[in-house]
Write a structure and sequence with these properties.
Strand order of the largest sheet: 1-2-3-5-4
Distance between the termini: 42 Å
Number of strands: 11
Structural class: alpha+beta
């Protein structure tokens, strides 16, 4: 069975007995799953939907939290029933681990709380009226200052060994004057090599270039100069502890 260590006992039981529903659960089914797994005491409403997962605004007692639920079937990932359950649980595990690593490194991300199977809970950024807005939808009062802080945050993330592989104004939330990175599902851990150092650092450089180019396009609306090339070289120089890019 692929990736068996990432499966919770209940998922392994469902796979072994064949007790896996072919249909994507509807809202009430997802809400019941969130509550029955003690991720939240109340599911208020769905507040976001991505390519692979949905996000729900929930309450844990009186505490507002967000719960991200990876969909089993309405996704771009291929695979049969057992493989699909395994894959989506694996993705939830990967993102939760990355979120935990970033949070413990004092990086600007939502605080992780708990993961169960293909779901995990985290700090809710926003208020009763709705989630914090994406950077794309915010009108900044001091764009130069915001750009400088954001670039510094990207550098701090890289210095910790993490590179966001989908960095854009869509995956940054602005709340109480601060920017928070979200959607770390496919973030790259350069300090945990799964391939040769040259390949991993080259991949990191490509993601940094693409992400900072995207953010640079956003800040150009304000006439803010975005020193992308210099920033990328600084980050790659730090990530390349093996000297393979020289």
């Amino acid at each position: 069975m692929p990736n068996e260590p990432y499966l919770d006992a209940s998922v392994r039981w469902k796979i072994q007995t064949g007790a896996i529903d072919l249909q994507e659960p509807r809202y009430h089914g997802v809400a019941e799953s969130i509550r029955s797994n003690n991720l939240a005491t109340e599911v208020v409403r769905q507040v976001g939907a991505g390519k692979e997962a949905d996000v729900y605004y929930c309450l844990d007692g009186r505490r507002p939290i967000a719960v991200k639920v990876y969909r089993m079937y309405r996704t771009s990932h291929r695979g049969g029933r057992p493989v699909k359950s395994d894959v989506m649980g694996h993705h939830a595990c990967d993102e939760f681990d990355m979120l935990t690593f970033a949070y413990r490194g004092e990086l600007p991300v939502p605080r992780p709380i708990r993961r169960v199977e293909n779901m995990f809970s985290m700090e809710f950024l926003g208020g009763p009226e709705g989630p914090a807005p994406q950077l794309l939808r915010v009108r900044l009062d001091r764009p130069e200052e915001h750009a400088r802080r954001l670039l510094r945050a990207v550098e701090e993330m890289a210095m910790s060994g993490v590179v966001h592989t989908d960095l854009s104004a869509y995956n940054i939330l602005v709340w109480n004057g601060r920017s928070y990175f979200i959607d770390l599902a496919a973030a790259l851990r350069v300090d945990r090599l799964g391939s040769s150092p040259w390949m991993r650092v080259t991949e990191a450089k490509q993601h940094l270039q693409r992400g900072l180019r995207s953010l640079g396009g956003y800040f150009r609306r304000y006439g803010v100069d975005w020193p992308m090339d210099e920033a990328v070289e600084r980050m790659v120089s730090y990530l390349d502890r093996w000297g393979v890019m020289e």
